[in-house]
Design goal:
By secondary structure, this protein is an alpha+beta fold. It has 4 helices and 8 strands, in the order E-E-E-H-E-H-H-H-E-E-E-E.
């Protein structure tokens, strides 16, 4: 959206409603039940008053709850949550990479789980799709008992023997 006009909507609680004023535009007042409704309502009001399409009005909502310290605490909490999510995403990425490397070394899921101090189910989730992650057409097959990679070639195929349960390669 290319905004033609940027405005600030100052919202103050009045009973069960938010009373909203827009200092940039004379006579721009509205009300809303919930904060999430304010941008659309302000854009509509500005559209009528200034004769511009509502889609071209960018609204920044500033709730005034009469306690600036509480709003600052809310902002700090939001920043901490965002930082925690970034750290969690980085940890998951690092875990996926280590799981892939350990599995490529032939370690079974349960051993990888012990090394990483996580459940075997979580290792399986992190390992999901590692055979095709490289983006090429190679197929990777692991021995059911040892977890070792037994075939890693587009030309080679692996099949499990119905008698022994072991994986055998064939070209």
């Amino acid at each position: 959206m290319v905004s033609e006009m940027q405005v600030t909507a100052i919202a103050r609680r009045s009973g069960d409603w938010w009373a909203v004023e827009v200092p940039e535009v004379d006579g721009a007042f509205t009300q809303a039940k919930r904060l999430e409704q304010i941008p659309a309502m302000v854009a509509d009001a500005i559209s009528l008053l200034e004769d511009i399409p509502a889609e071209q009005v960018e609204v920044t909502v500033v709730p005034d709850i009469g306690d600036p310290e509480l709003l600052e605490s809310a902002e700090r909490a939001r920043a901490q949550v965002a930082a925690a999510q970034a750290v969690q995403a980085a940890a998951a990425s690092a875990s996926r990479a280590v799981v892939e490397q350990l599995r490529d070394k032939g370690l079974p899921v349960r051993d990888v789980a012990v090394i990483l101090k996580m459940s075997a189910q979580r290792v399986s989730q992190l390992d999901g799709g590692s055979a095709t992650r490289s983006g090429n057409a190679e197929s990777t097959t692991r021995d059911a008992k040892t977890g070792r990679v037994v075939a890693k070639s587009g030309a080679a195929k692996a099949a499990r023997s119905t008698k022994t349960g072991r994986t055998v390669k064939s070209a």
